[in-house]
């Protein structure tokens, strides 16, 4: 019975992210990684893992969101340069 519950939970967790945008996926990934790191870190130092997970999730989500903004800026600069080269124009990358 425990295996069925674990498999069902894993399947739902994997398929739940299939309709998310890149921003949502990066933010959720950051929150998950941050929560795990925060819980483990506070447990190692004999703190309350719940509060570590909450703090880690908040920091991780913010970091994931900032990383998404960085990746979007990179893509914008790349596309601007690509289009300028394609049209034999000077690069007009956004500032």
List low-confidence stretches. Answer: none
- Largest sheet composition: none
Radius of gyration: 20 Å
Shape: elongated
Give the SSE string.
HHH
The total strand number stands at 0
| Class from helix and strand fractions | mainly alpha
SS field, number of helical segments:
3
Give structural notes.
By secondary structure, the chain is mostly helical. Helices cover 80% and strands 0% of the residues. It contains three helices and no strands. It has helices at 2-16, 22-44, 49-86. α2 packs antiparallel against α3. The longest helix has 38 residues, at 49-86. The model has no long low-confidence stretch (mean pLDDT 83).
Record keyword descriptors for this entry:
about 100 residues, mainly alpha, about 0% strand, elongated
In summary, what is this structure?
By secondary structure, the protein is mainly alpha-helical. It is about 80% helix and about 0% strand.
């Amino acid at each position: 019975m425990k295996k069925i519950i674990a498999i069902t939970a894993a399947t739902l967790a994997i398929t739940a992210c299939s309709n998310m945008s890149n921003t949502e996926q990066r933010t959720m990934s950051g929150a998950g990684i941050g929560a795990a790191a925060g819980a483990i870190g506070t447990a190692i130092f004999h703190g309350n893992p719940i509060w570590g997970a909450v703090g880690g999730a908040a920091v991780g989500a913010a970091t994931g969101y900032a990383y998404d903004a960085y990746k979007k800026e990179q893509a914008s600069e790349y596309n601007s340069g690509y289009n300028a080269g394609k049209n034999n124009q000077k690069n007009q990358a956004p500032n």
